[in-house]
Amino acid sequence: MPACGTRSQKAHLRALYELALLMDNRITNRMAREFLSLDSTNAMQKIFARAGIYKSGISKNASYSIDLIKWRD
Q1: How many domains does the chain have?
Q2: What is the pTM of this model?
Q3: Residue 5 covered by a domain
Q4: How far apart are CA 28 and CA 35, in angstroms?
Q5: What string of pLDDT tens digits covers the 73 residues of the chain?
Q6: How far is the C-alpha of 28 from the C-alpha of 60, rounded, in Å?
């Protein structure tokens, strides 16, 4: 549980939105895992897929982008 004592099932989505803003809306799996403190590449891929984050490229050249207007609120 975080230091603030609250839980959220969508906190990671807000964090990814903010990361996208910082990184000109081009996120890699590794970058997102480091930002969210995750170890698993598979878990990160599932988060991307369930959140509807767009993937471009394949393998090590893959990057992800977010519909910033849709996610703004």
Answers
A1: 1
A2: 0.80
A3: no
A4: 11
A5: 556 677 777 788 889 999 999 999 999 999 999 999 999 999 999 999 988 899 999 988 999 998 888 777 6
A6: 9
Element (H, E) at 63: strand 63-65
In a domain, 31, yes or no: yes
Distance between CA 21 and CA 10 in Å, rounded?
17
Residue 44 Cα distances to 10, 68, 73, angstroms: 14, 19, 22
User: Using DSSP, how many helices (H) and how many strands (E) does the chain show?
Assistant: 4, 2
* Pair of tokens at residue 12: 């990671």
